[in-house]
Amino acid sequence: MKKKNQSKQTVRPGRLFGITFLLLILVFFFSLRGKRQDSGDWRTYRHPEAGLKFNYPKEYVVTPGGGGIYLGQEGLPTLLYVKIIENEHQLNPKQWLESLCDECRQEIVKNHQLLELEFNHLPALKLVRIQPPGTETEFFFVIATPERIYHFSFSPGPEEQELPEAILSSLRLS
């Protein structure tokens, strides 16, 4: 009697661990994303004329004024100030920074670390205030389109440190 050639496929422990680990990371990532922006705890601000849209926590208030948009909690310092500037000369963010008055530019360059990057294939500049360790991180985020320059100024309090990145991750420009 001949034995049938039966081949058993076994899953290697390393491969099984890798697949499980990847699935756990994906579940964790999507659960965080859902809690931060997709739940009822966040609202969406839209500025159709400026082609701007971003999500923010529902306990915060958006207030237009002073040539910009303010975001913060009632009675507390502003978390975010957004200034939208017409880009008449089609400057990139670094050129915009260089176009500021000498005193303003020197103050910014002296007290901030400059990071050139891209945001949705658009040139961007992140300027992080140099501060002692353990203090709140203030930073500017500048994005340039041919039509506009979007200047975001974040000043998060101790409990708001993760909010700027969450808000920027929801940001859409059209």
> What's the oligomerization state?
single chain
Total helical segments: 4
N-to-C SSE series? HEEEEEHHEEEEHE
Mean pLDDT: 82
The CATH topology of the largest domain comes to: Protein Transport Mog1p, Chain A
Q: What is the second-level CATH architecture of the largest domain?
A: 3-Layer(aba) Sandwich
Query: What's the total number of strands?
Result: 10
Category from helices, strands and their pairing? alpha+beta
Largest sheet: 7 strands, antiparallel
Keywords:
174 residues
What is the fold's blueprint, element by element?
Elements: H1 13-38, E1 42-47, E2 52-57, E3 61-65, E4 68-72, E5 78-86, H2 93-99, H3 102-111, E6 112-119, E7 122-129, E8 139-144, E9 148-154, H4 163-170, E10 172-173
Can you walk through the features of this model?
It is a single chain. The protein has 174 residues and is α+β, with helices and mostly antiparallel strands. It folds into two domains: 10-39; 43-173, Protein Transport Mog1p, Chain A (3-Layer(aba) Sandwich), CATH 3.40.1000.10. Helices cover 29% and strands 36% of the residues. It has helices at 13-38, 93-99, 102-111, 163-170, and strands at residues 42-47, 52-57, 61-65, 68-72, 78-86, 112-119, 122-129, 139-144, 148-154, 172-173.
